[in-house]
Amino acid sequence: MAAKEHMNLVFIGHVDHGKSTMVGRILYETGAISEQQLRKLKEEAEKVGKPTFEFAFVMDELKEERERGVTIDVAHRDFQSPKYYFTIIDAPGHRDFIKNMITGASQADAAVIVVSCKDGIQPQTKEHAFLAKVLGIQQIAIAINKMDEVKYDRVKYDDLKAQLTTLLKNIGYKVADIHFVPTSAYDGANVSKKTPDKTPWYTGPCLVEVLDMFKVPPKPIDKPLRMPIQDVFTITGHGTVPVGRIETGIMKVGDNVVFMPSGAKGEVKSIEMHHQPLTQAGPGDNVGFNVKGVDKKDVRRGEVVGTASNPPTVVQDFTAQVVVLEHPTAIAKGYTPVFHIHTTQVACRIEEILEKKDPKTGQTQQKNPDFVKTGDVAIMKIRPLKAIVAEKFSEFPQLGRFAVRDMGQTVAAGVILEITKKQM
After folding, report:
1. Closest Cα to residue 210, out of 3, 2, 11?
2. Helix (H, G, I), strand (E, B) or coil at 13
3. Integer CA distances (angstroms), 396 to 96, 203, 418, in order
4. What span, in angstroms and rounded, lies between the C-alpha atoms of 248 and 226?
5. 211: helix, coil or strand?
6. 62-91 pLDDT, tens per residue?
């Protein structure tokens, strides 16, 4: 049988709306985790006084998360639907962990937004939906979850669906293309199979069937190699092993590669994905590769790998379209928050605000405004305070979008329109 096409899927939404339980349920029902593993997790959940958390524990493998019952880092798990081979990126919904959510969402081909029918739209539901759009996730599905807690009430479901439709329309999603599914991750209702006994009034597809309606984005294999590094390990017998997701191009064993902005060069000795050796890897593959001639101290998270013949671009400054999501006062020239671009985090200074646009029409509202505030869309010139790799969104979308964080929250997000190369 031919290998199934691969997709990266992110689950987002407000804290405690049941994302981890949903993911655990999908993994269990598609056979990605066994009865035995689930039984073990159930015992552990009872031990730490969280008796209904066994499904959530599948993803929340960090001990601290189990004790707090909160998802912290971005976890990766694989499962197969009838059509696709999915890697789930379980993104945290918790406020302080949103920077990990950004890392997760910027790697995803599609997103499932989980909203509790009991609690309705929460601040983070909005923030995550908006970020997903700005970060370029075109395909989303909505799981209206915890239906068991409202006794599968159709009226409550319809009401929340109407509110979500308005929200998503305002953000700029084509609502006609979005499936809404009434689910209970805990009961397993409409997750991997339809449950007409519980929701006789719902005739649409279950959640896993909706996932199979997503389309795999075209793979940019004809572009130069670009792979942002997530982590670097030293593995006995292998030496330095950087890990990350290839965004564009192909990496082959024997390639001469360069890490930017550090400039470290080396040769690819071997490539591995999910502990399987590969001779080459392409866009969307999460891989580790052993590189000869590069020391662990030479490279770190946030560097970008390319071929020596076509190295990733190190920028002096860039012009970007920025959406101000939430700022307590206003953003003016000289403001220096932290930018999250692919896997790097760097302080950047806003050098100029070139124009303010009407968020609904995209028309210019004002040239060179003194400041912008929550809800505004602006074109800005931005200068990173240290060397980073970035690319134009139109050429390398994966390396051309960013989120801006300050004071423990995401204050803005945007895409890079133009770059000025740094003279090395």
Report:
1. 11
2. coil
3. 29, 40, 12
4. 5
5. helix
6. 444 445 444 334 445 678 889 998 877 654
Pairing between β-strand 239-245 and β-strand 251-252 as defined by DSSP bridges: unpaired
Summarised one tens digit per residue, pLDDT across range 159-213 is: 999 999 998 988 788 999 999 999 998 889 999 999 999 999 999 999 999 999 9
Residue ranges of the chain with pLDDT lower than 50? 1, 60-66, 68-75, 91-100
Backbone torsions φ then ψ of 23, nearest 5 degrees: -65, -45
**Measured at the alpha carbon of residue 329, what is the angle toward residues 323 and 334, in degrees to the nearest 5?**
75
398: number of Cβ within 10 Å:
22
Enumerate domains of the chain plus CATH numbers: 5-211 (3.40.50.300), 227-307 (2.40.30.10), 315-421 (2.40.30.10)
- DSSP E strands, 222-324: 227-235, 239-245, 251-252, 256-260, 265-273, 276-278, 280-281, 286-292, 304-307, 315-324
Q: Which residue has the tokens 């564009």?
A: 248
Q: What radius of gyration, in Å, describes the C-alpha atoms of the chain? A: 22
SS3 for 61-110 is CCHHHHHHCCCCCCEEEEEECCCEEEEEEECCCCHHHHHHHHHHHCCCCE
Give the helix ranges, DSSP H, for 266-350.
none
Which residues are bridge partners to 277 per DSSP? 272
| CA distance linking residue 35 with residue 38, whole number of Å | 5
- Is residue 101 within 8 Å of 124, Cβ to Cβ? no
Among all chains, which residue has been given the structure tokens 């700029």? 172
Burial 289-302 (b: 16+ CB within 10 A, else e): bbbeebeeebbebb
